[in-house]
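Subject: design request, 250 residues
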């Protein structure tokens, strides 16, 4: 018999005062429990998080200071594990994701609880060209690291993680280098990947959309992470490198 399937939503947030509440409410329509990790937001964003906690709409955790998306998601895995959730549906707080697709993501995770379920984004005209090019580059590297096109999109912030495996993955990245790194490490641990197409719409500044992606520094971090991961991939080919880790019990 497979272990119980107890999913929660997981939303990392850093200064998303205009979009966060709606994202959490929309997730709650499909998953009653949502963990929100406030990554050191300024007052306006922090207040929205506090209100969600007070109203019982989210399990709220405030990080003492900003640590980056990866750091916030890793904190979220710990909170989810402590609360007894087996799976975390991670959704970014910037309102870009088609949350109405969440039931499809949940169905896929329920059907294959050991798998990593990743969004394969279908962008519309709102997607910045520079971000599309950066994604193509990171796709090239993840294909090399996994030995094929296992991961259709390593960057998208809409995915379902099996929590125990995510905690055991040993992903080091704390910022935007985290999403591709953990996906590759989970593949190396032997997890199957399910790629699900879903629409991505960049919310305009006027509608409260914000991106904190630091074009220069995040790309430097991502490049350095891929350099290390390709070296590890070569080591694995030679029989060394990271071996499957023991997962925590659910
Ligand atoms: N950038 C950034 N995001 C953070 C941080 N901590 C938590 N996050 C959250 O991580 C998620 C992704 O952040 P975004 O700034 O949208 O980054 P992105 O989706 O890679 O970039 P875009 O494609 O421009 O939207 C959001 O929910 C953020 O609130 C942080 O320190 N920096
Ligand atoms: Mg985003």
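Subject: RE: design request

Done. Sequence follows.
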């Amino acid at each position: 018999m497979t272990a119980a399937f107890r999913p929660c939503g997981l939303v990392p947030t850093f200064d998303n005062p205009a979009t966060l509440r709606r994202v959490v409410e929309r997730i709650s329509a499909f998953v009653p429990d949502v963990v929100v990790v406030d990554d050191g937001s300024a007052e306006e964003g922090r207040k929205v998080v506090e209100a969600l906690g007070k109203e019982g709409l989210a399990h709220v955790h405030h990080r003492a200071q900003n640590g980056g998306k990866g750091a916030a998601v890793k904190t979220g895995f710990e909170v989810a594990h402590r609360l007894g959730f087996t799976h975390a549906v991670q959704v970014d707080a910037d309102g870009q994701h088609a949350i109405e697709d969440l039931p499809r993501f949940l169905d896929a995770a329920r059907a294959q609880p050991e798998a990593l379920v990743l969004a394969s984004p279908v962008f519309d005209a709102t997607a910045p060209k520079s971000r599309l090019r950066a994604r193509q580059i990171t796709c090239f590297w993840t294909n090399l690291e996994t030995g094929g096109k296992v991961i259709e999109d390593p960057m998208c912030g809409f995915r379902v993680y099996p929590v125990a495996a995510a905690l055991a993955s040993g992903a080091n990245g704390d910022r935007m280098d985290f999403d591709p790194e953990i996906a590759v490490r989970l593949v190396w641990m032997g997890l199957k990947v399910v790629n699900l197409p879903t629409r991505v719409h960049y919310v305009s500044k006027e509608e409260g959309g914000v991106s904190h992606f630091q074009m220069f520094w995040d790309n430097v971090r991502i490049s350095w992470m891929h350099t290390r991961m390709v070296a590890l991939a070569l080591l694995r080919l030679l029989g060394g490198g990271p071996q499957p880790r023991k997962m925590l019990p659910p």
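Residues 12-14, 16, 39, 66, 68-69, 72, 92-94, 96, 131, 157, 176, 211-213 surround guanosine-5'-triphosphate (ligand 1) (CB under 6 Å).
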